Predict the 3D structure of the following.
Amino acid sequence: MLTPEMAVQNISSSPFPLVFLEPIADVNHQWAALAIHLSPSDGDTTALLNQLFSEFEFHAALGNLRCLLPVPDPASFETHFESLLPPSQFVLRVPVEYCAGDAQLQTLDRLHRRGYAILVQGLPVGGATLTEAIAGISVDYTSATFSQVKGWLSRAGAGLHLAEEIQDQNSFDACQQLGFRWFSGEYSLHRTSLASRRDPTSRMRLLRLLDLVASDVDSHEIEQQMKHDPTLTYQLFKLVSSAAFGFNSTITNYTQALNLLGRRQLQRWLQLLLYARHASDKSNNPLLPRAAARAGLMEALCQKLGCDRDEQDRAFIVGMFSLLSVLLSMPMLEIIGPLKLPSDVLGALTERRGRLGSLLRLVERSEYGEAPLRHADLSGCGLTVQAYCHSLVHAYRWASHVSAEAHA
């Protein structure tokens, strides 16, 4: 019999499974949870999950978000899983086949009573029923069985129903109409909504401001550009007046606000504003936290490689700018061509060239899409799986915070 101790030994003596964090969004495109995926994920994952939360501190990436855990063996999970987080923060993704027998259902009932939410992966068959322990159903939108989902959702009632593999906004809207409340997939990268193209002049103004900041021009020139945008001025003064800056005096002018913020923070704040929702939008822009995660992961991986502070900053810019073509529905070169970007940033964004380009390809593969990350991708960039895991926590901790702030 394989004990948890033997499982840990097996993990350490074989290639460490690759870990992916997939955002789960609500109906307003705000992150509601992060799903952990493991590759390969054969057999019981409990020992590996324990290692992720103890050695790599994956709880730090969550903030107030819930965490979807892959639990192919709930009985082992019930006995051996350990975490400092309360059970209420976890949603256990259980194969639908596990819900067939009385003994299995009793295990799920006990986990439910301890405070864990149970999400069934797939649709039950035949005349099966869902017990009160089941909080919701998780269904692949592209699967052949999705046509049967309406009847099951009407029987299950309201719950944490998750629609996966959503590829566009129309599919998102259709799933929302069916009663799904959680969503995952690549829909934010293939948007059909006009929201991404609203007010392009405002976003181009932000790009011009970013160009000025990067060129280290005099603050007076930055002020003149900001004065053309009253909304931007309001957001600047609101930001520096927040408790995070601990500034108690009255802010009376642009120079004071810009000096308090600092050039590096100003640059990052402007980058985030590129993805901020339009004033008339009811929903968040789903690209905002995704771009933040890319930027944070690029920066953290660059740091793991021993790069200096300047290259880490350029890595951050590459990650943040990498979704501009989706945001503005324009070719990347047309967007960034007028900017005086460093050659390695330009090469990474347009041709995935150089060290930053290789890291961007790695980050894109880490998003659990059609071309998932491989061990060879990490070794090719000079990174270990351990360095990748620590960087992943750093990136998603910040992206989770950005998602929450966008909703505030």
